What does this fold into?
Amino acid sequence: MLKESRSRIFDSPAIYLIVERFPVNVSNNMAGDKPRNPVRIAIIGGFLGAGKSSMAMAVGQYLKEKQNALIAIITNDQGNVLVDTEFMRSGGFDVEEIRGGCFCVNFEEFVKNAQNLAFTKRPDLIIAESIGTATNLLAAVISPLKELYPQDFEIAPLFVVVDCQAANESLGHDENSPAVATLIPVQQIKEAEIIVLSKCDLVEKKQLDAVIEHIKILNPEAMIIPYSFITKTNVEKIAELMISKKTSTKKPFEVDQKIFAREKAMLGWCNYSAGIIADERVDARTFLVEIMKGIAEHFDSHSLAHVKAIIASARSTMKLSLVGDRLRIDDLRGERYFVGEGKLVINARVCSTPEELKQSIINSVRNSSRAMRVRIFNEQEVAFVPKPEVSSQFLKIQ
Ligand SMILES: Nc1nc2c(ncn2[C@@H]2O[C@H](COP(=O)(O)OP(=O)(O)OP(=O)(O)O)[C@@H](O)[C@H]2O)c(=O)[nH]1
Ligand SMILES: [Mg+2]
It folds into this structure.
């Protein structure tokens, strides 16, 4: 039965939480028994390409190895096939995905998937990575979870990952290198309870200190942790915080989400997938690099928020990621060479029209496939501008 409940969760008396679409207790409908203790969820926000997935992977692996903890992951994006999901699954994690845009506009699905993981797998921790353009996680996800499902979930403080190499641009400090977005990253920092400064292996201490100073002005209360996926700096600290008993306490604050609409609308998104067949041995790395180069050549590097591509075949998985002008091989499992059948998935978020982005991906894949004698079949692509992220649960009542 659907129930209506209303409770005041903001400081502002004008804002109420309206819950009318969601069953207050859907747990009974789920497969498996209800867990006795709430399952812990850590939500990770942060801009496109900041390092959320790599951090979830690093933390998950650390907790698995050091504490024998069972970690489940929720990925979140818009579109049909998600590179992050393939990446996490290849890392051996149980993964659920929310594919229709931000958690905040798909709260019902988010809760359903989180409950599914909680009740069937009984993990020690669910790490939920939000879409990189999310600007409303405290109000639209964390607060309703705390308010409505305290018996099901224990909510960790909101983690936000900030790319400290890109921070000068994304915080609006570098006029010569215009960032893809500035309002969105600043809002994400303001929302955070714990800020993880990623890619600190790529910057000098002086730049790191300057970024920390700036972040402290935007959000004096947040804990700030410099981190590197490459050197594993502070992975242990982040992992211990994620699995600790520390819970989210920050009150949401009111922000008109419309102010982010222009930055969101400037980004074209394209998700591409295809089957691939190689009759002879093909170097997966060269194939992916060629595809990425073809896409990168089409755009200014500042426009490339994040392009990620993965090849998965029976004997290997390889993932490459392009953020700005930085191309990295993120993952190689199994053999570098593949023969026979496999799958290619590309997710691209670029300052471009969706149509131009889609065409550049199709051209690049077809050119690289021809050059490397890889046959492609069942090509599918969707290109779009991300949905506006307006919470479906919150209404303003005057
Ligand atoms: N040098 C360096 N690279 C990093 C670090 N963390 C992440 N990266 C790289 O940055 C790129 C993007 O990382 P992801 O973890 O996919 O970023 P994301 O935030 O999940 O991206 P979206 O899901 O698209 O929003 C990848 O090539 C990562 O290897 C880091 O600490 N140091
Ligand atoms: Mg990701």
Remarks:
- The chain has a mean pLDDT of 86.
- The first strand starts at residue 5 and ends at 7.
- The two ends are 28 Å apart (CA to CA).
